[in-house]
Amino acid sequence: MTVNSCFTSEKISKIRWIHEEYQDANTFVTGSWGSARNNIKVWSIADSNYAKEFSIKCVDKHSTIGDVTGLEVFNKNSLAAVTVEGLLQVFNVDKITDNFSLSRRGGVENLHKFKRGNRAPCNGICVYDDYAATFGEDGRLNILSLADLCILHDIAEGDNCSVTTALFANSKEILTGNRMGVIKQFDVRSKNKEALSTFPISGNDERKSVAITNMCCHPTQKHIVISGTEEGSLMVWDLRKIGFPISCFKAHAQAITEIGFHKTQPSRLFTASEGGEFWQWVQQETSFPLNQSQAFPSESDSNNPWLDSKRTKNQINVTSLITGVRRAINSFDVHGSHLACGGDNEAVYIIATE
């Protein structure tokens, strides 16, 4: 494994690979935060004169007002980005000769507002095919068509609590996590805006709420959801069992900023934290390398270690990929044998596992 770090001169809030078929990704996009005007940039990996080393170069960028709070690639060559100002923008990511370029297709403004009409911060976006959901401090979800750039309908949290993360479990259902530490499950097709299910958590101190900061679904067993909290804990949920998490354990010392499985190798989970840590969680039974292309391994509830806290501790090995950064690692993405992450130290780290 080799780790290359590259200075970006701006704080990175989000990072995503542009997927390329039949090869490891060599192009990624970043969103920045902390400046009056921030950037959505396309970066390309360039080989170095030294073995196993490479650098990155910015090949295109788009400036925007406000922090970039969400960035997702959909339909392989399209990009959806949201800012704290409540602006959704959609870009085509076109390959010209050896590099990619951004072309803005359109946008939707003022997606989130408080009851009195004041603008509410937008906290992020999640996508599923041509559909997206934005979520914000107003406790509202906006379900949008990315093809037509229009709001199909919205869902408001009954308690108006800030929605900190959201996730499409499938094409019909969406999960939200809020600042009070509650996960809710909604039917995006239903005119009834009440939650189908509610999953509460409790923190180390039962007298205070613990915000849910990020969530991900298991790639092959969609009923398994793992969430991270502001205390640095991991919570494992079974959506078939309404109630509290089926397992919970302390992970990072500070808040988990992002969490996600490897898309084609579900035995591998990755977490990043505000403490500047980037970890890999690997199921012991699996020994294939990250870049190996193969069908999903056979898994069932009986042997999935995430569904049992004792099995999790005994069968999951945790490896630190990056540590000691001392600034938050805000986002990461994985494609094949390449991992990319970035954060508040104005650097991007590219990790090659072979």
Counted by DSSP, the helix tally is: 1
User: Judging from the principal axes of the Cα atoms, what is the shape?
Assistant: globular
Number of domains: 1
What sequence of helices (H) and strands (E) makes up the elements?
Answer: EEEEEEEEEEEEEEEEEEEEEEEEHEEEE
Largest sheet: 4 strands, antiparallel
Query: How big is the Rg?
Result: 19 Å
CATH class membership: Mainly Beta
* Low-pLDDT regions: 286-298
CATH architecture: 7 Propeller
User: Helix- and strand-based class?
Assistant: mainly beta
As a percent range, the share of strand residues is: over 45%
CATH superfamily: YVTN repeat-like/Quinoprotein amine dehydrogenase
- CATH fold-level name: Methylamine Dehydrogenase, Chain H
Q: Provide the residue-averaged pLDDT.
A: 88
- Name the strands of the widest sheet in spatial order: 1-28-27-26
Distance between the termini: 6 Å
The count of strands amounts to: 28
